[in-house]
TrEMBL record, chain A:
Name of the protein this chain belongs to: Phospholipid-transporting ATPase
Membrane topology: Multi-pass membrane protein
PANTHER family, A to Z: PHOSPHOLIPID-TRANSPORTING ATPASE, PROBABLE PHOSPHOLIPID-TRANSPORTING ATPASE
Translocase as UniProt keyword: yes
Similarity comment: family membership: Belongs to the cation transport ATPase (P-type) (TC 3.A.3) family. Type IV subfamily.
Gene: LOC109723143
Highest taxon listed in the record's lineage: Eukaryota
EC code(s) of this entry: 7.6.2.1
Domain called P-type ATPase C-terminal: residue spans: 782-1021
Top-level taxonomy: Eukaryota, Viridiplantae, Streptophyta, Embryophyta, Tracheophyta
From TrEMBL, chain B:
Keywords associated with the record: Membrane, Transmembrane, Transmembrane helix
Protein name: ALA-interacting subunit
Organism: Ananas comosus (Pineapple)
Chain segments annotated as transmembrane: 48-70, 308-330
GO cellular component: endoplasmic reticulum; Golgi apparatus; plasma membrane
Compositionally biased intervals (Basic and acidic residues): 141-159
Subcellular location: Membrane
Length: 1109, 352
């Protein structure tokens, strides 16, 4: 389970793979078989191959085999070419990476070699701005303190610079020594965790001693990072090629299947069964007819004794005749449409975030329809709903509140006075704010100081302290060994030596620092963390009541709180602890746990200095977005790692939940299993009782209770999940987020998870649709997601516009594809009754192929531009989404409608044709062309009637195709050997041909139009009503104005709510009566829903009903 | 590139294009990419729908009347002779009668012309229950062989009538040619013989391009089982018009094929005598044989279907239009009335 790496040892390098990176799926040799194999794993392709093979048997084939082989080969060629092109591009980029020149030490000399030849154990030299070619353990840098900076954007998307340090044992080696360094690194086998590296290093004599030196992720340079602000660095290759952390985390994600795809597959299966039935029945009838009638037909010359397979011949012929029931073009058309949907998302200007300059992006091109069918949105809070731009707003120092009046502590005169007067508490408070963090100050040449922070909170604190005249001006030295932090306070420079950092983990929820005041030599422990992590460590003598109140009060305002504390350490206490700490930090097993335990020993008896409150503002448009999406019948769950009160406050602010009396919050809490169980039972009971009432219920659960619930009371919780439209889950871990998604998915809901940080990645990957916000916490979430957008508010456009249109368009395209295939197939079937059930094809091969591949496939592709309702109407009436959500446009009953239409049209076309072309006109080629033209005429009108809007492209495609049909057939008719020589010319000169066509269209479309009109006028669906409303009267309200109006109201209220805490005291607590947000909600709906209506309150049970319909 | 796009589509001129230049990630603006192409959105308003139906009705009825009258003007004389042309004493076993080459198959029929028929009068034979579209039958031909002399041996598709027992290629091969219709008719009116013109009964295109002028019948009907007519081996296929007509297979089991044309007018109540050589076997499968004399019109032969269908559809459309008007008058509905929206109604009343 371990990997032993010998540094600079040429002898044992073959143990591990070389550094050749390969992302390729295929090689030149295996491309054809492998690609074919992959394509044939799809059922549809197997089916078509079988049909195509059967067609090679001339005894049974009704048409030329080319009519199936042609499209099949085209389809295969198209997808194979796409694969090959992608793979070729991967090959090119691999090649570029593999052949990059790097400096590597070979036999004590630095040489230029290609990156692919790096072996494990090699010492690799990098210069500034070089890309790291493989995973390295840093052993030397140009900086005397042994640090270097890397940019890890390619790895985790975080754009800030990270500091990497050389392990202590390598400190002080000069570059000559680094060439000759020998040693051994003991590290775990390759894994994909980019935040973890637990290893040991021992150098061989003559390099220092043979002490074991622990290595962490801070000592590594990972593949694909860039070296920045450092002249050179060198490191030992530990993982190479595809075994690097990046290489291991690569992987092809499981393809997601949309609900629509599943439905289409189901329908395909049903059609397949239907086809089997038809084949069996007709085959049987055909055999009977053959034995009774055909033998009398002397001119057919049936032999008395047939071969053994004779009974199979007719059924197989019918199988081939009916094989077109499953349209071969549907997959290609759908793929084409889907990639266009994705492109429309990428291109959408309205989803371009001008602030961060990020366009929306659809990484997964196959699931746009699912966006329109979302039922649950699970959202992260920080960075997703909020801006994740932290601003220090208030604080409470030693029981005194600052910033309550003005809303900004930095402008609070009292605080400024206190700072000016050197009030000791305040100074200490500021010192902790400034020092207790991992912020790296970077001095630019002009002398201005900028901060690089991994945590937005820390950044906010340091910046705030700087404004209060305590400026962190520099940190020198190795982070682990010794750091001198310099603080400029009111002009005087204070120096501290950082002795140890007790790092922040999400379990500990606090971080501490041991520093030594260089002036006095005193040692201090500085701590900061969440209230529940700090208060238990407080000095038992101290009154922490005021601080708890402060935390409570700030949380109600939706502010993020941190508590600061400190303690003076005795010299010997520190030294004793320091040994334990060192020991713990070099263990290989359970290092994190042991470290936490050791840290615990120091973090006690803290003197609580105060509480900071940081504001994380809501993103623009979040409340409206949530309001609209909730109206659209989408349920929201908020999953956050934040604490309950902050979460509830944010939820209120962004219309997530309504206050009393419209809404009610139900809490599930408790420390023990019994308490949780009882609480859950109670909530469930309330939920059941109130489902009929027009009341919005939401439950709140925290991570601890959730843990118990998910383990033991899953069923009850599932019921609760079904009943409740809204839920707030606070203090949840990334894996719990994923579990909740899984739970909702298991109830057959379509889930969309949206988040911005690394902790949301699992949930995003788990959900049916993952949406990442390319935000300030890096791009990790955006990379893992199917869609990435710049701001939360774009979600409404993504779902209501793109998702909805995609759903509608695919619903039409897929059903139409089946309809047109069934139509031609039914004509063949009816014809077979007039041709002695012998399996004669009415149409010739060319026409059949062209019908499927051109005439009926191309015009309908323009449905990609079809809009049933304008975007604005959809935004005004988001409720319309229910049609997509509940799958009303593509389900067995709508499909039955199309099926019936195809039967009806087949009958119309066939009967009219054989009656108009009876007797002396019943020539095979003419009659078949008349029937085909009839189908083409009908298609043009069907597509026209079903489309809702016509752009020039659609009109061109529909009628251009119509003209093209005649042009193509004129051309084919002038080729003597083509099997329909002169037919089209003859037909076009006959008045009866045109009269027949018009009759077919009138009889075929008349009832459809009448029925449609009747339903449209007297039984209109909501879509119809809105179509009528928007088209007959034009836009009734100019929503744009309303929206901006609303926004300004929103802003006023938002600032109001922050600024006036006094009016708020009555707000909080479960029964959220009189919340100021209530006033806003009453403004919201009335302004939004322009038909003076009450906001939607489709209860969840009602939702279920709709779904069932 | 972006600036170009900006100015091409010219949404906001200079500001737009400079903004685009600053940041290349911004999506290119065009009406297509933004799905904003101008579109017309027709609405199924009562006005449009009712007038559509009314219009269809108004247009269809005259067309229907015209077709019907054209069809009515066609004079058609149909005579089924398959049953009557079997001598009385042989009617119990018609099959034996037809298969016996010794029996006299001549049969005389007298027809009365119902109305005045003006030339040219088409002479058709009509077969019922004859499956020229049967899969075994329809495929049993070789177009290559018919076309050119050099492809004489391309008889693979002709099975089971490809070659004689000795393996010699049959020209023309295949079941279709083999079963060539062989009843013949000769007409006389008022004891004066009526000439039947059998030239140009086939399609010109077939004669020119599908049947070779250098291909002569060979080994035809020389096998043990004689199917239908035999061909004069000295006339090339392109001149064998009966064969060409026969080989245009019919799509339906009931069909008429052109036998010839009578190029004189026939007066009403004139009696025509037809001498039929009743050779063709339809008795084994109970098919009917009919002789048809018919004039033509612009719509073709006598076929009331189109006229009746047009009148029916036109009538129905007018009826629908009336219905919709009545519905509109008695039960008016405001289009796009938002109060019909389900979420604006009481939730309870929702059913769909």
């Amino acid at each position: 389970m371990k990997r032993i790496v010998y540094i600079n040892d040429e002898s044992c390098q073959d143990l591990y793979c070389d550094n050749r990176v390969s992302n390729r799926k295929y090689t030149l040799l295996n491309f054809l078989p492998k690609n074919l194999w992959e394509q044939f794993r799809r059922f549809m392709n197997q089916y078509f191959l079988l049909i195509a093979c059967l067609q090679l048997w001339s005894l049974i084939t009704p048409v030329n085999p080319a009519s199936t082989w042609g499209p099949l080969i085209i389809i295969f060629a198209v997808s194979a070419t796409k694969e090959a092109w992608d793979d070729y591009n991967r090959y090119l980029s691999d090649k570029q990476a593999n052949e990059k020149e790097v400096w590597v030490v070979k036999n004590g000399v630095r040489k230029h070699i290609q990156a692919q030849d790096i072996c494990v154990g090699n010492v690799v030299w990098l210069r500034e701005n070089d890309e790291v070619p493989c995973d390295l353990v840093l052993i030397g840098t140009s900086e005397p303190q042994g640090t270097c900076y890397v940019e890890t954007a390619a790895l985790d998307g975080e754009t800030d610079l990270k500091t990497r340090v050389i392990p202590p044992t390598c400190v002080g080696l000069d570059s000559e020594q680094l060439h000759r360094i020998k040693g051994v690194i003991e590290c775990p086998n390759p894994d994909k965790d980019i935040r973890r590296f637990v290893a040991n290093m021992r150098l061989f004599p003559p390099f220092i001693d043979n002490d074991i030196c622990p290595l962490t992720i801070n000592n590594t340079l990972l593949q694909s990072c860039y070296l920045r602000n450092t002249e050179w660095a060198c490191g030992v290759a530990v993982y190479t090629g595809n075994e690097t952390k990046l290489g291991m985390s690569r992987g092809i994600p499981e393809p997601k299947l949309t609900a629509m795809d599943a439905m289409i597959d189901k329908l395909t299966g049903a059609i397949f069964l239907f086809q089997i039935v038809v084949v069996v029945v007709l085959g049987f009838a055909g055999n009977v007819w053959k034995d009774t009638e055909a033998r009398k037909q002397w001119y057919v010359k049936y032999p008395e004794e047939g071969p053994w397979y004779e009974l199979l011949v007719i059924p197989l012929r019918f199988e081939l005749l009916c094989s077109i029931m499953i349209p071969i073009s549907i997959k290609v058309s759908l793929d084409l449409m889907k990639s266009l949907y994705a492109k429309f998302i990428d291109w959408d200007e309205d989803m371009f975030d001008a602030e961060t300059k990020t366009p929306a992006h659809a990484a997964n091109t196959a699931i746009s329809e699912d966006l329109g069918q979302v039922e649950y949105i699970l959202t992260d809070k920080t960075g997703t709903l909020t801006e994740n731009r932290m601003i220090f707003k208030r604080c409470c120092i030693n029981g005194i509140f600052f910033g309550n009046e003005s809303g900004d502590a930095l402008e609070d005169v009292e605080l400024l006075n206190a700072v000016a007067n050197n009030i000791p508490h305040v100074i200490r408070f500021l010192t902790v704010m400034t020092l207790c963090n991992t912020v790296i100050p970077i001095k630019s040449k002009s002398g201005a100081i900028s901060y690089k922070a991994q945590s937005q909170d820390e950044d906010a604190l340091v910046k705030a302290a700087a404004q209060l005249h305590m400026v962190l001006i520099g940190k020198n030295g190795n982070i682990i060994v010794e750091v001198f932090a310099e603080i400029n306070f009111n002009g005087s420079i204070l120096q501290y030596e950082v002795l140890d950092i007790l790092e922040f983990t999400s379990d500990r929820k606090r971080m501490s620092m041991v520093v030594k005041d260089c002036q006095t030599g005193k040692i201090f422990l500085l701590s900061k963390g969440a209230d529940e992590a700090i208060f238990p460590c407080s000095n038992s003598g101290q009154q922490i009541r005021t601080f708890m109140d402060a935390v409570e009060q700030y949380a109600q305002l939706g502010l993020r709180t941190l508590c600061l504390g400190w303690r003076e350490l005795k010299e010997d206490e520190y030294i004793e602890w320091s040994h334990m700490f060192k020991e713990a930090s070099s263990t290989l097993v359970d290092r994190e746990w042991r470290l936490a335990e050791v840290c615990q020993r120091l973090e006690h008896d803290l003197e609580i200095l105060g509480v900071t409150a940081i504001e994380d503002r809501l993103q623009d448009g979040v409340p409206e977005t949530i309001e609209i999406l909730r109206k659209a019948g989408i349920n929201f769950w908020m999953l956050t790692g934040d604490k309950q009160s902050t979460a509830i406050q944010i939820a209120l602010l962004c219309n997530f939940i309504s206050s009393e009396p419209k809404g009610q919050l139900l809490f599930i809490n408790g420390k023990t299993e019994d308490e949780v169980a009882r609480s859950l039972e109670r909530v469930l009971l309330t939920m059941r009782i109130t489902t009929s009432e027009p009341k919005e219920l939401a439950f709140v659960v925290d991570g601890w209770a959730l843990e118990i619930i998910l383990k033991q009371y899953k069923e009850a919780f599932t019921e609760l999940a079904i009943l409740s439209r809204t839920a707030i889950c606070c203090r949840v871990t990334p894996s719990q987020k994923a579990q909740l998604v899984e739970l909702l998915k298991s109830c057959d809901y379509r889930t969309l998870a949206i988040g911005d940080g690394g902790n949301d990645v699992r949930m995003i990957q788990q959900a049916d649709i993952g949406v990442g916000i390319s935000g300030r916490e890096g791009l990790q979430a955006a990379r893992a997601a199917d869609y990435s957008i710049g701001k939360f508010r774009f979600l409404k456009r993504l779902i209501l516009v793109h998702g909805r249109y995609s759903y509608n368009r695919t619903a039409f395209l897929s059903q139409y594809s089946f309809y047109k295939s069934l139509l031609i197939c039914f004509i063949q079937i009816i014809f077979s009754f007039l041709s002695g059930i012998s399996g004669t094809s009415l149409f010739n091969s060319v026409s059949l192929m062209a019908y499927n591949v051109f005439y009926t496939s191309i015009p309908v592709l323009t449905v990609v531009l079809d809009k049933d309702l304008s975007e604005r109407t959809v935004m005004q009436h988001p409720q319309i989404l229910i049609y997509c959500q509940a799958g009303r446009l593509l389900n067995p009953s709508t499909f039955a409608g199309w099926f019936g239409r195809s039967v009806y049209h087949a009958i119309v076309v066939f009967l009219i044709t054989i009656h108009a072309y009876a007797d002396e006109k019943s020539e095979m080629e003419e009659l078949s062309m008349v029937a085909l033209s009839g189908c083409i005429w009908l298609q043009a009108f069907v597509v026209t009637l079903e489309m809702n809007s016509f752009t020039i492209l659609q009109i061109l495609a529909i009628w251009g195709n119509f003209v093209a049909f005649y042009v193509i057939n004129f051309i084919v008719s002038s080729i003597p050997s083509a099997g329909m020589y002169t037919i089209m010319f003859r037909l076009c000169t006959q008045p009866s041909y045109w009269i027949t066509m018009v009759l077919i269209v009138a009889l075929g479309m008349g009832p459809v139009l009448a029925l449609r009109y009747f339903r449209y006028t007297y039984r209109p669906s909501a879509i119809n009503i809105l179509q009528q409303a928007e088209r007959s009267r034009g836009p009734i309200y100019s929503l744009g104005m309303l929206e901006s109006q609303l926004k300004s109201v929103e802003k006023d209220v938002a600032s109001l709510s922050i600024n006036q805490p006094k009016s708020r005291s009555s707000v909080y607590e479960p029964l959220l009566s009189d919340s100021p947000t209530a006033t806003r909600r009453s403004i919201g709906p009335s302004a939004f829903d322009f038909f003076q209506s009450m906001p939607s309150r489709i209860s969840s049970s009602y939702m279920r009903n709709c779904k069932d319909n | 590139m972006n600036s170009k796009a900006g100015s091409t589509f010219g949404s906001d001129g200079a500001t737009d294009s400079s903004a685009a230049r600053r940041n290349s990630k911004k999506p290119k603006y065009s009406k297509f990419t933004q799905q904003e192409l101008p579109a017309c959105k027709p609405l199924l308003t009562p006005g449009i729908v009712i007038s559509t139906f009314a219009l269809i009705g108004i247009i269809f009825i005259p067309i229907g009347l015209a077709s019907l009258s054209a069809s009515e003007h066609v004079v058609e004389l149909v005579d089924r002779y398959d049953a009557d042309c079997v001598p009385q004493h042989l009617r119990d076993d018609k099959l034996a009668f037809i298969q016996n080459s010794q029996t006299n198959k001549t049969c005389t029929r007298r027809l009365i012309v119902p109305k005045q028929m003006s030339s040219p009068i088409q002479v058709y034979y009509q077969l019922d229950n004859f499956y020229q579209n049967h899969r075994r039958y329809v495929k049993s031909r070789s177009d290559k062989q018919l076309k050119s002399k050099s492809s004489e041996r391309e008889t693979k598709t002709c099975e089971p009538e490809g070659t004689t027992g000795d393996g010699l290629a049959i020209v023309p091969c295949g079941l279709i040619a083999w079963s060539l219709f062989n009843d013949t008719y000769s007409f006389s009116a008022n004891s004066k013989s009526l000439q039947v013109n059998k030239k140009d009964i086939a399609w010109q295109s077939d004669k020119k391009h599908k049947f070779g002028s250098d291909v002569y019948p060979k080994n035809f009907q020389s096998g043990g089982l004689i199917g239908g007519a035999s061909l004069n081996a000295s006339i090339p296929l392109s001149e064998q018009e009966d064969l060409i007509v026969w080989m245009r297979t019919a799509a339906l089991p009931t069909f008429r094929k052109l036998y010839g044309r009578i190029e004189v007018d026939l007066e009403a109540n004139e009696e025509i005598t037809v001498v039929i050589q009743n050779n063709y076997n339809t008795y084994s499968f109970g098919g009917k044989k009919k002789l048809v004399l018919s004039t033509t019109s612009w719509i073709g032969g006598k076929n009331n279907f189109l006229g009746v269908a047009y009148l029916t559809v036109g009538g129905l459309c007018l009826f629908l239009a009336m219905g919709f008007i009545l519905l509109y008058v008695f039960k008016p509905r405001t289009l796009g009335d938002p109060s019909y929206l389900s979420w604006n109604r009481n939730a309870a009343g929702y059913s769909n």
